[in-house]
């Protein structure tokens, strides 16, 4: 068993999949963050991306290991941690045998909790962001600008505080699109270069033309990134009139909301918080 666990540790170096026969493996680290899941659980599928990215930015170590347990197929472990529903997160301190039930599914909150309880900080440099950050003048006429998106924003805008987190929608969009983000706190000169006085704003460059959008919230920005916003194309960025989708009735402002359904959020939170230790 020790050899099997060593192989898991060296080869995976992220989250090990444990079963009922692997209880002693919980003693390989001072703390264990345990994700109980079920393959048939829709809320598990909803949380999976957050968990996956968490395993990327928090490396396994003698102080902390991240493990996964298929709850329905490992009833002994589920019973040991008083788990009767999924998804469920438990934090075990092996030395004190203290078990903490974690109700949050927000990446930032999980990172903060893990740091506070274990002393292990997330290392976001381990995550290779697909977003291209703008740190120099942008040549919007260059061939590389073809079929690409440029978003100009600031981290204090609602919805953009943690845009560097892997679970942020702009990171997800950049997995299938060429997306550039200009953070004005890091590159203020983008504003006079593009003659901007408001943000966030977004541009789409394709076939030598450009369209611009001042999204009223994250939902409409997502639609813009998905080419679902009908806006005119221009031959020059100087001709772009930044506006929100005419059908929304919104003007230009900086509020951003969640791209996730509020109903789904409420149902998920109710399901998670109802699981008792």
UniProtKB/TrEMBL annotation:
Source species, domain of life: Eukaryota
InterPro entries in the cross-refs: PDI, Thioredoxin-like_sf, Thioredoxin_domain
Pfam families per the UniProt record, alphabetical: Thioredoxin (PF00085)
Domain Thioredoxin: 29-114
Signal sequence, renumbered to the chain: 1-21
Keywords assigned by UniProt, alphabetized: Signal
Biological process according to GO: protein folding
GO terms under cellular component: endoplasmic reticulum
An annotated Gene Ontology molecular function: protein disulfide isomerase activity
PANTHER family: PROTEIN DISULFIDE-ISOMERASE C17H9.14C-RELATED
Protein's name in the database: Thioredoxin domain-containing protein
């Amino acid at each position: 068993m020790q050899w099997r666990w060593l192989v898991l540790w060296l080869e995976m170096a992220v989250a090990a999949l444990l079963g009922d026969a692997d209880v002693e493996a919980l003693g390989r680290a001072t703390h264990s963050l345990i994700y109980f899941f079920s393959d048939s659980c829709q809320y598990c599928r909803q949380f999976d991306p957050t968990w996956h990215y968490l395993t990327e930015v928090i490396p396994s170590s003698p102080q902390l290991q991240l493990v996964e347990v298929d709850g329905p197929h490992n009833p002994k472990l589920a019973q040991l941690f008083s788990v009767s529903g999924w998804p469920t997160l438990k934090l075990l301190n092996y030395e004190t045998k203290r078990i903490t039930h974690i109700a949050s599914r927000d990446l930032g909150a999980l990172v903060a909790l893990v740091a506070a309880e274990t002393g292990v900080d997330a290392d976001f440099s381990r995550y290779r962001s697909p977003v291209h950050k703008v740190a120099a003048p942008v040549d919007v006429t260059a061939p590389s600008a073809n079929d690409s998106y440029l978003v100009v924003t600031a981290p204090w805008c609602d919805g953009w505080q943690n845009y560097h987190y892997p679970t942020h929608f702009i990171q997800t969009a950049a997995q299938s699109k060429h997306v550039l983000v200009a953070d004005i706190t890091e590159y203020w000169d983008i504003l006079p270069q593009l003659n901007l006085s408001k943000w966030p704003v977004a541009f789409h460059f394709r076939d030598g033309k450009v369209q611009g959008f001042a999204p009223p919230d994250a939902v409409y920005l997502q639609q813009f990134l998905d080419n679902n916003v009908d806006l005119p194309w221009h031959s020059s960025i100087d001709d772009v009139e930044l506006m929100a989708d005419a059908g929304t009735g919104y003007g230009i402002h900086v509020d951003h909301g969640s791209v996730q359904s509020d109903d789904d959020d409420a149902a998920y939170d109710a399901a998670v918080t109802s699981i008792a230790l």
